[in-house]
Amino acid sequence: xxxxxxxRAAVELDAAVTAAGSGVAPGGATxxxxxxxxxxxxxxGTAGIKxxxxxxxxxxxGxxxxxxxxxxxxxxxxxxxxxxxxxxxxVSEKLCSNPVSHSRPAGxGxxxxxSxxVRGGAxxxxxxxxxxGxxxxxGxxxxxGxxxxxGxxVRGGAxxxNxxxxxxGTAAAKPATAxxxxxxxxxxxxVLAMGLSSFGDxxxxxxxxxxxxxxxxxxxxxxILALGSLxxxxxxxxxxxxxxxxxxxxxxxxxxxIRAGAMLAGAAAVLVVGPQxxxxxxxxxxxxxxxxxxxxxxxxxxxxxxPPEHLVRGNAVYLxxVRGGxxxxxxxxxxxxxxxxxxxxxxxxxxxxxxxxxxxxxTKTLTSQEPRERVKIRQLGKEIGEGxxxxxxxxALRTAMIVTGLLELSGxxxxxxxxxxxxxxxxxxxxxxxxxxxxxxxxxxxxxWPPRExxxxxxxxxxxxxxxxxxxxxxxxxxxxxxxxxxxxxVAGLTALVLVSLAQRWSAPEMRxxxxxxxxxxxxAATPVGNLLIGVxxxxxxxxxxxxxxxxxxxxxxxxxxxxxxxxxxTLTEEKKS
Length: 578
Hints:
The protein is mainly α. About 60% of the residues lie in helices and about 0% in strands. It is globular, with a radius of gyration of 30 Å.
């Protein structure tokens, strides 16, 4: 998208010009110091320079070198022909905030001067602004006050002020991006829909658990729910490969529609035959597999919806909506389940998935290019392997995956089972509340002050703080535990947000679904392993030493991060590849 700036953010024409001898323009017209240029009609994209025009040295056709702006023959930014050998004019673009349509007319004061050779001794004023490069190609006009100083071959003796000078061949052009603080409206609509969908999921889980316990007993209910999570883990990598082949937005819409249909059909079936175990188990499997496709598609889609400078903030808002929906569903789930029963909850959940699918379909990606390839079952294994190799061959990305897994592993047990082990029946609620408040503060901080230049340092500091918090839990003091859980929620939330954003930014668009599926696999696998680990260690060595053991796991993650400079010094200010 091409954008033009306001008067204070005009695109400057930076020209490094040295004195040159007399040159002969193509067509035989000699440009002398006293010969004024005749007006010439500018072709689109040529910035007003007419090849072979009187007084103008025409440029030879050619491909622009890296660091220069590619233009048509005769456009500013291309080396001029002739014996004088004028240096290349380099155009730099400041980030502009107001996108304009291709046919937007010029405002008052935006006078486009015809191309002209600047006679010997002429000075280029520092206030001269140019709408060149991509804006000229699209025909976009300058904003009021941003006069278009079109391309000119500067003859010998011309001076350029220091404020508008650039060395020949330097890379000065940057793509124009939106720099406003507000997130795109379609993205916010998707965020609200995801929050509603998460609310429905939480209510459904509680209603399902109540129904299973009442139908088959606690032991069977626990076994069904535990086994129901396996399909998600087993199909995550497949979901990432499908997202890369068919496009994450299509996968998002499709999985939401499948889950909506499953919920509505399940509600109808329960209404007819009752809550039979095979029926409920089938619903659990369908929802788990659909979720395995949804998760990597969602993570891969967000960078396609948001400009780079909004990615961290967008991730924070998205995760806050998802966690908020889960928290609200958990708090109201039992009440709603008792009020309407499993059928009503399933219908509400199905409607929420339908709304989510509608919101996902209305999102607009930054580029119009989305994959439309058909899924080839026989090639899925190969594509999953390519995704694993892609991560393995990139040290910073690989380390980010391992650090994320260790981060989750060190905190999963203390956060889940540790609540009861440390706080008992009465103190567990206080610990959970402190953890929730800390995580909420992490999202607020990330939205208000998203980590950019010091993202890697923030992750390093967050991991170090997590080591301290886990070690403090060994004190078995409730007040210390409340403070530690609050800090743990804060630093773990910030660190995880940075690591996820870095993984998104370091992934090529065509590989992002597979990369994010691997990251999700690390995260999801860490939870059951962590719960098992804390139970075994508590029985073997007691609660205090178990907390120190989890702190040691976080310390290992910190050591890996520090040993990888590309990760420890990472920034989220511009697109970077690992």
